[in-house]
Design a protein that fits this description.
about 210 residues, Rossmann fold, five-stranded parallel sheet, binds thymidine-5'-phosphate, 5 strands, alpha/beta
């Protein structure tokens, strides 16, 4: 089973992935957590290129292809082998991030982006995707309160983030059977309860339950 988490920056994805992974592991399930861009040696090097503030003049198509290259490596090297072993893979961002950020955010035509997805996802689509939705103001407040420095992507202006957030709503509305829109402006524990409710109803039986 392949589950992805999406949202604008500082929406609380990593906290929710952590909660979910602990609940799945408590049921003796193998869980692989990956983050994009990154997750393999090659993909982490691409991540450094993408997020480095020195590369402020990166062309949008270069950006699209680098995020996509990182994804292709991650899918073939880690995600597909884990899924074949029966693990549950939880990804902090996947192809919908590219549609939201490079498509709706940067303005690259969505059909061109979908062509690239077709190539680099190797036919893999998430079984379930959570869009954790917070306001742009909340995202900015959380970013300001964080100790970590701002990266190149986070340097974008408010209008860019508004387009990305609207883009996520658009993406979620066109794939209603896969997407759950989760209100991320609540306490992390109640967000986590809602997510668990959705996941638990779709989980395959554990080895213990099967025997
Ligand atoms: P992170 O902060 O969630 O680790 O993600 C890194 C940044 O990269 C974040 O600002 C979102 C952005 N991003 C894209 O623009 N396109 C993509 O395809 C992915 C995976 C991330």
């Amino acid at each position: 089973m392949f589950i992805t988490f999406e949202g604008i920056d500082c929406s609380g994805k990593s906290t929710q992935i952590d909660f979910l992974a602990r609940r799945l592991q408590a049921q003796q399930r193998e869980v692989l957590i990956v983050r994009e861009p990154g997750g393999t040696e090659i993909s982490e090097r691409i991540r450094d290129l993408l997020l480095d503030l020195k590369h402020g003049d990166m062309d949008s198509c270069t950006e699209l292809l680098l995020f996509s290259a990182s994804r292709s490596q991650l899918v073939t090297e880690r995600i597909l082998p884990a899924l074949r072993r029966g693990a549950i893979v939880v990804a902090d961002r996947f192809h919908d991030s590219t549609t939201a950020y490079q498509g709706y955010g940067r303005g690259i035509p969505i059909d061109s982006i979908e062509h690239v997805h077709g190539l680099v996802t190797h036919g893999l689509l998430p079984d379930m995707s959570f869009f954790i939705d917070i306001s742009i103001e909340e995202s900015q407040m959380r970013r300001a309160a964080r100790i970590a420095h701002v990266d190149r992507m986070e340097n974008a202006d408010t209008a860019f983030y508004q387009r990305v957030r609207d883009g996520y709503h658009q993406i979620a509305s066109t794939s209603p059977s896969r997407f759950r829109i989760i209100n991320g402006m609540r306490q992390p524990e109640s967000v986590s309860e809602e997510i668990w409710g959705w996941v638990v109803s779709s989980l395959p039986p554990t080895r213990f339950e099967e025997s």
